[in-house]
Amino acid sequence: MKTTTRPASSRLPFVRTRLSDLAAQAGVSTATVSRVLNGKPGVAGETRQAVLTALDVLGYERPAALRSRPAGLVGLIVPELSNPVFPAFAQAIESQLSEQGYTPLLCTQSPGGTTEDEYIETLIDHAVDGIVFASGKHADMRASRERYQRLRGRGLPIVFVNGFAEGIDAPFVSPDDAASIELSVRHLVSLGHRRIGLAIGPDRFVPARRKIDAFCAELVAHELASSAEEVKAKHIVGTLYTLEGGQAAASELFAGGHTGVVTGSDLMALGAIRAARQQGLSVPGDVSVVGYDDSPLVAFTDPPLTTVRQPVTEMARAAVSALLSEIHGERAPRTELLFTPELVVRGSTGAAPNPR
Predict the structure, then answer these.
(1) Mind listing the pLDDT tens digit for each residue in 135-184?
(2) Helix residue ranges, H only, the chain
(3) Does 6 have pLDDT greater than 50?
(4) pLDDT tens-place string over residues 58-79
(5) Are 293 and 310 in contact (CB under 8 A)?
(6) pLDDT on residue 12
(7) How many distinct helices (H) and strands (E) make up the chain?
(8) Hey, which residues does 262 pair with through a beta bridge?
(9) Would you say 71 and 97 are in contact if contact means Cβ atoms under 8 Å apart?
């Protein structure tokens, strides 16, 4: 009878190559790779993650025992994505949630589209474990807080980013808006500017109101105005958080003789630069412009934009940490966590020109 013999080592070369490839990719030994793949103890968490990442990068399917299972769903509601800072927040928060095994459900709003309340109902229908609200209606001082109180009444953990509202039993994470204005105004004053204006969004929103109050205090402190009322009447223009809004507000401020303009967002700052050029002014030769957010690509505009950087990653980490504490039954602090911004000086600000 004819017997077919299969070499005992027929799969060995493949295994050796696979282990060595993984080891080289992860920067560890083949023995360490073997321990990870077989679920053995005694491997550091970072090393284990490096091996798992190598599996993914090289296109190998993870063993069933090593496949991470989603810990749950978390809703993330952000405004429209035309302002680059909101995608940055969404990406940072999603990344933090994913690292903890949670699947984020991103909900983005747009004018005339799905409302925040409609998204809330959809997320409840999906049985989410919690919701992160970024720059939502909680920041609107005219909006009702009832929607959030109902969520807390259901026991659903929620966390708010950028904007504070009294009477809501939840953690809040915000940038220090007053500090951002102080950095901007003091920078322009140090460059010799005496006519400084503010282009800002609607003052019914908490971040805008905080910036307005800080701007008034700074101009009075530097003896650039005699009172907050004078500042509001002569040096602040309310508008929309858009390029067009910044252009309209800055046009008015430049026409009034302002040589330095602080804006409420990088998009508004780019609008202000456009307004300057339409009036035949150079930036920063004739006028200086300061943005807010440090959005991606503003370092490459013409000129590169001086701006105040929001600590997006740190805020995202704090928001997710607070939410997960609540999900796990641990009460997170109810005081608002304020994160210090950073002035990033680039080419859109310079010495004040001689008096015009």
Answers:
(1) 989 999 999 999 999 999 999 999 999 999 988 999 999 999 999 999 99
(2) 12-26, 30-37, 45-57, 85-99, 116-125, 146-153, 177-190, 206-221, 228-234, 243-255, 266-278, 312-327
(3) no
(4) 877 777 666 555 678 999 999 8
(5) yes
(6) 37
(7) 12, 12
(8) 198, 290
(9) no
